Amino acid sequence: MAAASSTGAAPPPEPLGLREASQAQTPATIASIVMPSQDPKEADVSSQSPLDEPIHSRSIFRVTTVMVTLFCTLFLSALNTTIIATAIPTICSDLGSAAGYSWIGASYVIAATAVVSIWAKLSDIWGRKPFLLLTVALYFVSSIVCALSSSMGMLIVGRALQGVSGGGLGSLVIIVISDLFSIRRRSLFLGLLHVTWAVAGGLGPVLGGAFTEYLSWRWIFWINLPICGPAFILLFIFLDVHDPKTELAKGIKAIDWAGSVCMIAIMVMVLLGLNFGGATYPWDSPKVICLVVVGGLMTFAFVFNEGRIAAHPILPLKLFRRKSEAACLAIGFLQHFVLNAAEYYLPLYFQAVREASPLGSGVLILPLIITEALTAIATGIIIHQSGRYMELIWGGVALLTLGNGLYITFGAASPLGSIIAIQIVAGVGVGLLFDPPLIALQALVSQEDTAIATATLSFVRSIGVSLSIVIGGVVFQNGMEREKSKLQDLGLPVELADVLSGPSAAINIDLIRTISDPLQKLGVKAAYALSLRNLWILCTGIAACSLFAVAFIGRKDLSRKHTETRTGIKEKGGNVPTELVERDSRAAADGP
Questions:
Q1: Would you say residue 505 lies in a domain?
Q2: Where is this chain compositionally biased, Basic and acidic residues type (predicted)?
Q3: Do the Cβ atoms of 431 and 198 come closer than 8 Å?
């Protein structure tokens, strides 16, 4: 905004934000963390831009309503990645399709991963609000499709639609928060956001087991409706972010159609091939080879299009050319691979080795989930108060590696106390790496690239999640196949040894309880523990790679200045930002 001139011209309207009541970190304070600038020097932020215009103030009630609603929608997206796991055997039995075991989870993850960056780019062109509302509406409809499914095919279609909408929710919620708050202050909200994600990941198996055991697996999907409906209405009324009013024809022309098609093709073919391999078809099957190879070759077409052809690329390659940004993306991928492997396969360890019920396994993983949540909250507060993130990243990668290394000690007779303690160590490492890599990435890129950088981090994190399930399953299945001869040597019937090995090992853990001979039962438990040990070794190596990546992240001061993103089409691509300045009574003491 231009400052008042010396000739006595009236000063332009000051940029307005949220109102801050006090320094205390109460929920009301967090909700009102941005306030209008009263200092003329701060108000004189520049601007020769014709796009400068007053920004409407947001009341505490408005921002609280928006933030709570965003947290609820993200909770649903996160919940559906884990809530289905404990119900899959029952669903397959009810719908009469054992072949759908892997498809129920894979269809969601593949679809979500394929569209993350596409949703972000569409919101850059036409604005955040319409596409956030669209994802909520699509999630509502797809939940109904899943709940009413009368066949496995119908359920898989519904899960794929859920994945398309869930992928959009996961990235757009973070992008909207990044639009609303300065990089230093948004760390508080991102911390709470990742608490929501962690809690959903922990509650998913518990709720899935409870619904399946006491009600019906269909309630896993019906439960989404009472949240999606009100969320749509509240966001429609209260969410006020920039609306670029982009013309339909210009917007359609600006879409990176070739990049979008290549992105979807790569994700679907590669992840589908990896999901098929070793389970539905042998690894040397022509179907598996063609999917993986063609998907891999499509990567070259995608890179060429993004670097040479696309005017508005959905995945700017410049993010991967600069070492600091590339290192942030690498840590996001590595952390989510390791995190999801633990949250997905620790319940298997608890059910197979400790003979816990689905509900009990969800309770046993709570130390990991609670620690992640508490650490994420603390991390957000630390970044907000100090503006520092590098120390948190270093601590996170060290504890992440240590915690996963300690998972290797889990055996058939491991004491419960050590299992809980090790989960706490790993949980601190995971929690320290939720926000700092994202904050570092957003600090390193320009405001016009914030949305696409955030979506790219969500994209690589989604790939980490997808690969952890697929590769983790392959490692576990191969381990159980190698243990098959040992199970037969224990005197286990051939038929029982067959169903407790290879791809069928994970879905037949209830049979362990039927083994009456103590030595045979202990041998079966040891086989499961050893097979999962191979996965923990892999995850430890992957976590250790993050120790190398963190060395390349650059340090940058986190300013209290806020650039509120103005979406739309720029001549050379990207967003049209206008800078606002936040005033904080502690700015002089805290620094930038």
A1: yes
A2: 563-573, 580-592
A3: yes
Handedness of CA 364, 370, 371, 373 (dihedral sign): positive
Please tell me the distance from the alpha carbon of residue 384 to that of residue 582, in angstroms, as a whole number.
Answer: 14
Task: Render pLDDT for 185-202 as a digit per residue (tens, 0 to 9).
Answer: 777 777 777 778 777 877
Closest CA to 464 of 288, 267, 176: 267
d(CA 287, CA 521): 38
Query: Could you tell me the CA-to-CA distances from 480 to 71, 419, 486, 522, 530 in Å, in that order?
Result: 40, 22, 10, 15, 8
- Longest CA span, the chain: 98
The reply to whether 536 falls in a domain is yes
Question: Among 249-258, 311-320, 406-415, 581-590, whose mean pLDDT is lowest?
Answer: 581-590
Q: Is residue 46 part of a domain?
A: no
Sequence-ordered list of residues with C-beta below 8 angstroms from that of 347, at least 6 positions apart, any chain: 85, 86, 205, 358, 361, 362, 364, 365
Domain that holds residue 358: 322-558
Distance of CA 146 to the CA centre of its chain: 22
Structure tokens given for 11: 């000063």
Mutual orientation of helices 518-549 and 390-407 as an angle, nearest 10°? 160
pLDDT single digits (tens) 317-343: 877 888 888 888 999 999 989 988 888
CATH of the domain at 510: 1.20.1250.20
Q: What's the number of domains the chain is made of?
A: 1
- CA–CA separation, 55 and 227 (whole Å): 30
Q: Long-range contact list for 92-98, CB < 8 A, 24+ apart?
A: 92/152, 92/507, 94/217, 95/149, 95/150, 95/151, 95/152, 95/155, 96/152, 97/151, 97/152
| DSSP H or E stretch at residue 579 | strand 578-581
**Does 16 map to a domain?**
no
